[in-house]
Amino acid sequence: MKPYINTYADVLDLLDEKVAGVQWDRFYKERGRPVPFLTQNTLPDENLAAFLRSGAPVRSALELGCGEGRNAIYMARQGLDVTACDLSSEAIENAKRFMAEAGVQVKWICEDVIKADIPGSFDLVYDAGLLHHLAPHRRLTYLELLQKLLKPGGYFGLTCFAWGEDCGEEMDDWEYYDHPFNSGLAFTRERLLSLFQPHFKVLEIRKYQNGVPGTIQGLQFMWTCLFQKPE
Question: Which of 81, 85, 93, 218 sits CB 3.0–4.6 Å from 109 for a disulfide?
Answer without folding.
Answer: 85
